[in-house]
Structures are given as structure tokens and as C-alpha cells.
Amino acid sequence: MPSSPVRSPGPAPDLAHRAVLPYEESDLDRYRDLQQLAYRAAESAAGRLRAGMREADAAEWLRHSLRAAGLGAFLRRPAARFGHRTAAGIRQGGAAGVGGRLLARLREPERLRDGTPYLLDGLVTAHGCTVGVTLAGRCGGNPVWDVLRADLPAYRALVLREVRLGHPLGRLGRAVDALAARHGYATPDRALPGGVIAHPARPVSEAHRLPPGLWAVSPRLAFRGVGVAFEELLVVTEDSACWLDDDLPHALATT
User: Fold this and answer.
1) Which of 80, 93, 102, 201 has the most neighbouring CB atoms within 10 Å?
2) What percent of the chain shows pLDDT beyond 70?
3) φ, ψ at 49 (rounded to 5°)
4) Residue 3 scores a pLDDT above 90
5) What is the mean pLDDT of residues 52-79?
6) What is the DSSP string of 93-130?
């Protein structure tokens, strides 16, 4: 399971009115470099995954890769989820999913095997910057994962379009839900921590548009017990928005 080739950071955001952004260009560069470094470390860890490994093994590889990259300060402990756990916390078309048998199943140890989807996840801080990384992958072939992964760029584009139109956070979440419904996918329960669509350093009412700043965006999708997700930074000004970096694994077309 080789990792993706090392990439160079993408071009700087092209925003018409930088004066309204509460960050200097050098700040954006630091965040962009850190985000690239975190995803490269996650891809390096993914390249070491092998059938038979446990979630704890994968989480340890992720911790090791992040530390090797100089990212040893964790605000969210690096973790791995395999199999049906990648879809945990996702609404499944009305199924409550609170029965004892399901909870017991979610506690069963998961091992990587052919076709198993996985998520590698962490939140790191360095040089005054904090970024989250969520890398979706699968061991061997999994056609359900392939379809979900191929659709991630559409959700990324939808989030950007909604923010640029100045729509409030609540409408942004509903737009993501609506697209997922058209695709037949499940989306996160927003009462759960994993269900956050966007979060800044401070809470913002869902009735208001995103204020200028850097926002961590983390959509999640699931279908038939397979989940995919990503987390990355969105640059928002008073009248526009762009992704901090277009050269990330989930932003690239699948081959």
C-alpha cells in the first residue's frame, strides 16, 4: 500500500481583498506548509499499513510519522478507524443505532484486511499554527470506497461555492446534506463532534455567514458501512473565500 508521491504546496490563495483577512501572507504560508507536512506524514503512515494490523498499530504509525516530521505536539491524539468504524456517528437513513448489539460491535477490535476502509486522524500544532488532518483510504480493493472517494471533490467544491455566496453556516450544512441525499449517502449527526462541517477558534451561530478568518472544514460521508472524510483549512474574507491549498489528497482526482 504505497503512499502518494510527495507534493509541493499549491499556489497561494488568490483573494481580491486581503486587507480584510486577519492574517498576513506569512501566516498563510505557515499554515499551508504545516497542513502539507501533516498530510505527507499521514500518507507516509498509510503506506506502512498491512493486512492484519490493528487500529492501535495504525494510530502508532501515524504518531510516529507526525513526530518524524517534527509534529509531535498533538491537540487531538492521532487515531485510526477501520471498517464500519469509519462510518460511526453517521446518520443511516433513520436507523437509531443505539442498541446494545451495535454498541458491542463498535467496541470489537478491528483488524485491517483486504477491502477494509480506514481513516487516519489527528490535530497538530507547530509554530503557533494548528491544523487537522483526516486521511481516508482502503486496504486493497473496495468499490464502495472508490465511489465515495471519487465524490469528495464535489463536496469540497460545494462548500466553497456556498461560502462564497455568503450563505450562513446552517445553510451550508443543509446543502451538504442535500447533495449527500441525492447521492444516497449518509451524513454526520451534527450533535456529534465528528459532525462538524466548519469550526473556527470561537463558536459561530448557524444563522450567520462565516466571518473572515481560517476555518477548519471537515465533511464526512458514509454508505453501506464505509465512511470517507477530510479536514482542511478554508480562507474566508468579507466577500470571498478559497481553500488554503488545492494540492491535498482529497482534492486530487482519483486514478
Assistant:
1) 80
2) 75
3) -70, 140
4) no
5) 94
6) TTB---SHHHHHHHHSPPB--TT-EEEEEEEEEETTEE
Distances, alpha carbon 148 to alpha carbons 41, 55, 164, 176, 194, in Å: 23, 21, 25, 14, 18
Please give the Cα distance from 236 to 244 (Å, whole number). 10
Give the confidence band of 212 by pLDDT, cuts at 50, 70, 90: confident
Matching residue, cell 472544514: 217
Answer yes or no: are the C-beta atoms of 37 and 130 closer than 8 Å: no
Q: Determine which helix (DSSP H) or strand (DSSP E) holds 158, and give its type and residue range.
A: helix 143-164
Class of domain 22-251: alpha beta
Residue 17 pLDDT > 50: no
Contact 93, 38 (CB under 8 A): no
What does the pLDDT read at residue 253? 66
Determine contact, residues 90/70, Cβ cutoff 8 Å.
no
Distance CA 219, CA 156 (A): 8
Residues 6+ apart with CB under 8 A from 193: none
165-176 pLDDT, tens per residue? 999 888 888 899
| Residue 55 CB neighbours (<10 A) | 19
